[in-house]
Amino acid sequence: MSAALQVTAFGLALLSTLFLLLATCTDCWMVNADDSLEVSHKCRGLWRECVTNMQDGVRTCDQYDSILADHPVKIVVTRTLMITADLLAGLALASLVLGLDCITFLKEDPCVKLKMCYGAGVTLGAGSILGLIGSVWYAVDVYMERAMLVSHNIFLGVHYDFGWSCWLGMAGSTGCFVASVLLTCCLY
């Protein structure tokens, strides 16, 4: 039972960590929602903004200025939280691999292996919370920006909505949290 639970938690943690990494690296945190009026599809990410022409499929991307340049708070905070979540999830994944019962590392000391799995669960939980805060922070900021423009009757011609990268970050964080709960609460 314990080995099956560990392997399940490992598979979920691996998939969720990949989702977190993809969310951090991809460029579609915010998309234009006025596809019926537009001939192009615009995506804004944490690192660049991309426009895809719907007629011929040509995609062009503009990199944001240097990482040290002045950026909106939502981008800086989300970058920081997502990178930290990625690092913590990767560290937890490495620790979890060494703590699995099916790995022969430290086979003669099961107590240490169990502590490694528990530590991986705690680290994974911390990373999941940071990733979820970063993803939700960005989503709430997009919503507030849109609500403020609507309340002031301002129409800029482009209406942005949450992109698939934002949803991927939320899904990855939630998966890491579930894996953390499996490792910290259900393993004993």
UniProtKB/TrEMBL annotation:
Span of the signal peptide: 1-28
PROSITE patterns referenced in this protein's UniProt entry, alphabetically: CLAUDIN
InterPro entries per record: Claudin, Claudin16, Claudin_CS, PMP22/EMP/MP20/Claudin
One Pfam short name: PMP22_Claudin
Entry GO CC: bicellular tight junction; plasma membrane
Keywords: Cell junction, Cell membrane, Membrane, Signal, Tight junction, Transmembrane, Transmembrane helix
GO terms, molecular function: structural molecule activity
Localization terms from the record: Cell junction, Tight junction; Cell membrane
Membrane association type: Multi-pass membrane protein
Annotated TM spans: 118-140, 162-187
Annotated PANTHER family: CLAUDIN
Family according to the record: Belongs to the claudin family.
UniProt-recorded name of the protein: Claudin
